[in-house]
Amino acid sequence: MSRHPEVKWAQRVDKVFITVLLPDAKDAKVKLEPDGVFSFSASAGAENHHYELKLDLFDKVNVEESKINVGVRSIFCILEKAEKVWWKKLLRGDEKTPHYVKVDWDKWVDEDEDTGSGPGDLDLGGMDFSKFGGMGGDDAMGDFDDSDEDLELPKPGEQDSDKNEAEEIGDDPSEEKKEEKKEGAGSA
């Protein structure tokens, strides 16, 4: 009996990304047909379990322009769509998507955000470099005003003169506490 490997997928207007997650796959065979049938088979694991997969894709693909890379941990496929349109789902038919087929959120782009090409096509390990804009250079802090004009802090010489004035008037709270201590010590 064969097993099913985990499959992740994402799409752009012109291509579909399919990643078959199967570490240490041996004798991996991938077959892609123009009518959209994607077949995969390999053996893996210490006991050489046989894995098989057949996906009836939503629409036709361009076999000649599609690319397949068999890596150590996964098999990564970039399938060129025959027509540059967004698919409603990965598989044709009304059946529920199999439990081993999942969305690849690291590669996913919404239809309204798809530019057709560029950095969105690269696998950046899930990092979105567009969020790092404006974090360097002279304007790194934006409109932050670091001037001290609005703060009314006493100047070092003024602080001492204010304290001296309070002592002369007799409003110095430290003097009152000294007097209270003397009175408390004398009555004991």
TrEMBL record:
It is found in: Cytoplasm; Nucleus. GO terms for biological process: chaperone-mediated protein complex assembly; protein folding; response to heat. InterPro entries: CS_dom, HSP20-like_chaperone, p23-like. Residues 110-188 are annotated as: Disordered. The keyword Nucleus applies. GO terms for cellular component: cytosol; nucleus; protein folding chaperone complex. Keywords: Chaperone, Cytoplasm, Nucleus. GO terms for molecular function: Hsp90 protein binding; protein-folding chaperone binding. Residues 152-166, 175-188 have a biased composition (Basic and acidic residues). The keyword tRNA processing does not apply. Residues 2-91 form the CS domain. Residues 140-151 have a biased composition (Acidic residues). Pfam families: CS. PANTHER family: CO-CHAPERONE PROTEIN P23, TELOMERASE-BINDING PROTEIN P23 HSP90 CO-CHAPERONE. Interacts with HSP90 in an ATP-dependent manner. Belongs to the p23/wos2 family. Acts as a co-chaperone for HSP90. This is Co-chaperone protein p23. The lineage of its organism: Eukaryota, Viridiplantae, Streptophyta, Embryophyta, Tracheophyta.
